Amino acid sequence: MITWLCVFCFLLAAALLLVILKILLMRRALREICRELQEKLEEDTNTLLRVSSRDSSIRSLAAQLNTQLRLLRDRRHKYQQGDRELKEAITNMAHDLRTPLTAVCGYLELLKQDCLPSRYFDLLENRTELLKTLTEELFRYSVLLAEEDWEPETVLLNSVLQECLASHYSDFKKEGIIPEIHLTENPVSRSLNRSFLCRILDNIISNAIKYSDGDFQVFLDESGEMRFSNLARDLTPVAAGRLFDRFYTVKTGAREASGLGLSIAKTLTERMGGTIRAEYRQERLSIFLSFSARM
């Protein structure tokens, strides 16, 4: 009886020692995790948590923390990128608004002195309209970002595209552009917001007219993909890759733009589940727009 009691006490003591050892090892592993986690949060590093413990629970905890670190790092980079873009955008918009505003102020000062030649009234009106356009585009962009809900309806891409092209007839004529239109005769319908789609197409067409070197082509195939193409010798592949960035403008001559048109088009396209991309080859810019047949 005494022998069995001694054996039981020995086993109990051994088990207790193992439990204590396990607790001590886990505490050390947790201290390692806390120390490394603090270091990773304070530093902008791509390294992840490393633990010496082989305990499955501890390693699982470290793996979950590493997952959250990756997400946190991605969000930090997106925030930093957005912050840089916002600062750049504010600088660009301030410059774009200041230039016509300075001219307007100068013309108004001459007007007060009754020494403003009549030909300058057209310039004054032009600069005022430019200010109005820039501020209106900025306002519309902020409104679009705030709107999340949209009402879908069945729209015929062929019809909407033809209407948008017709609405720009005077713009094409002013720039001396004769558009080449190639639309499939088969009706292509999608479940979209008609207003959003018209805004997307208007922005793409307006951008093409503004920066085209004399031509414009538009295609719609049976799959529903739309392609808008124009010659753009002043463009580069790098600039083409940034066309959908907020407030990004291509600096060519005296052309004025807010840099929001294609950004708005991308925002609305993605909101309706579509895709939009730009491609630049052999001095031609092509913008591809498509929407899934199933919504």
Automatic annotation (TrEMBL):
Main location: membrane
Subcellular location, record wording: Membrane
Domain Histidine kinase per the UniProt entry, residue ranges: 92-295
Catalytic activity: ATP + protein L-histidine = ADP + protein N-phospho-L-histidine
InterPro entries referenced in this protein's UniProt entry, alphabetically: HATPase_C_sf (IPR036890), HATPase_dom (IPR003594), His_kinase_dom (IPR005467), HisK_dim/P_dom (IPR003661), HisK_dim/P_sf (IPR036097), HssS/ArlS-like (IPR050398), Sig_transdc_His_kin-like_C (IPR004358)
Record has Transmembrane as a keyword: yes
Keyword Amino-acid biosynthesis: no
Protein name according to UniProt: histidine kinase
Organism: Zhenpiania hominis
Keywords: Coiled coil, Kinase, Membrane, Phosphoprotein, Transferase, Transmembrane, Transmembrane helix, Two-component regulatory system
Coiled coil: 27-54
GO-annotated cellular components: plasma membrane
Record membrane topology: Multi-pass membrane protein
Stored SMART domains: HATPase_c (SM00387), HisKA (SM00388)
Known EC number: 2.7.13.3
A Pfam cross-reference name: HATPase_c
GO molecular function terms attached to this record: phosphorelay sensor kinase activity
